[in-house]
Write a structure and sequence with these properties.
This protein is an alpha/beta fold. It has one domain: 4-Layer Sandwich (Purple Acid Phosphatase, chain A, domain 2). Helices cover 21% and strands 26% of the residues. The strands form three sheets. An eight-stranded mixed β-sheet has the order 2-7-8-9-10-12-11-13, covered by helices on one side. Strand 11 and strand 12 form a beta hairpin. The radius of gyration is 18 Å and the shape is globular. The protein starts with a strand and ends in a 5-residue tail after the last strand.
Length: 300
């Protein structure tokens, strides 16, 4: 029987920064809510959420993406927004939170949409992203945390420091706990599989996480960092890059090699609809066109 994540106490630990001599980054390290079994009624309806990344520019490209998100919300309402990092350009400055995040997303925030964000490399340039961790509007109770929406369990991961030690132990525990959910989604900034030419794939994260995700029954991974839309299918796991939230775009690899199925260098966001039996994504451009609709296969 599916188990959902409920809110519990945060484990207030501190994440070490990249350098051995750097001061520890501010903010809690983990938030791992306890698990409980929902009523059947709680898990049967379809749930809808969207995902976007690299959106925190405060410029016209971001505004066009968000305008399409708000139009979608008016016609096919969704309850939650996943942000896969670089939420506040250029340096995660607290002074830029209002003009680069809160004001552009006002149409969704004021309508009650709940955001769930992870930190990108630009976000941690100022105080390790402490301002976003402290701002409830980002929905980031810790650097690494879990939450659920109907039949979907989410594991949110900070990859600005390559996971190791107790972060990997926490991740393995959370993935094991999510295995009884119909769908498991992992969200972090740096893509293990990127069809772009600017940053490319994080081979270190690929080596560390890809086999782990496949074996743990992860169905979907959502990333940003590369400023485009891309999709790959690898060992039962669907990898989505949705980094076209507003920053300048980056080209696709040509010709597009395996395992990449789609790559489009456009400003975009992704819509998801999930039931216990189906998880369907639709990628939308900032001009209102559809890039693709795709049913995410269940990882056996």
């Amino acid at each position: 029987m599916r188990r959902a994540l409920t809110i519990a106490a945060l484990l207030l630990l501190v994440l070490p920064a990249c350098g051995d001599d750097d001061p520890p980054a501010a903010g809690p390290r983990f938030a791992s809510p306890a698990l409980s079994s929902p009523s059947p009624e709680a898990s049967s309806p379809a749930v809808r959420f969207t995902a976007v990344a690299d959106a925190g520019t405060g410029d016209e490209a971001q505004a066009k993406v968000i305008d399409q998100m708000c139009k979608l919300n008016a016609s096919r309402p969704f309850t939650d927004v996943v942000q896969a990092g670089d939420n506040v350009y250029d340096h995660g400055d607290p002074a830029d939170i209002e003009p680069h995040f809160a004001e552009p997303f006002a149409c969704l925030l004021e309508d009650g949409a709940e955001f769930h964000s992870v930190l990108g490399n630009h976000d941690v340039e100022t105080d390790g992203g402490a301002a976003q961790l402290a701002d409830a509007r980002f929905g980031m109770p810790a650097r690494n945390f879990t939450w659920s929406l109907g039949p979907v369990s989410f594991v949110m991961l900070d990859t600005n420091v390559v996971p190791s030690g107790d972060v990997l132990s926490w991740l393995d525990d959370r993935l094991a706990a999510a295995e009884e959910s119909p769908w498991t989604v992992v969200v972090f900034h740096h893509p293990p599989f990127s069809p772009g030419t600017e940053h490319g794939s994080s081979l270190e994260l690929r080596e560390l996480l890809a086999t782990r995700f496949s074996g743990a029954g992860v169905d979907l991974v959502i990333n940003g960092h590369e400023h485009l839309y891309g999709r790959a299918e690898v060992d039962g796991v669907t990898y989505i890059v949705t980094g076209g939230g507003g920053r300048e775009l980056t080209p696709c690899l040509e010709p597009l090699p395996e395992p990449y199925a789609v790559c489009r260098p456009v400003h975009e966001f992704v819509e998801f609809e999930a039931t216990r039996g189906r998880l369907v994504l639709t990628a939308h451009t900032s001009d209102g066109a559809t890039i693709e609709s795709h049913e995410v296969p269940k990882n056996p």
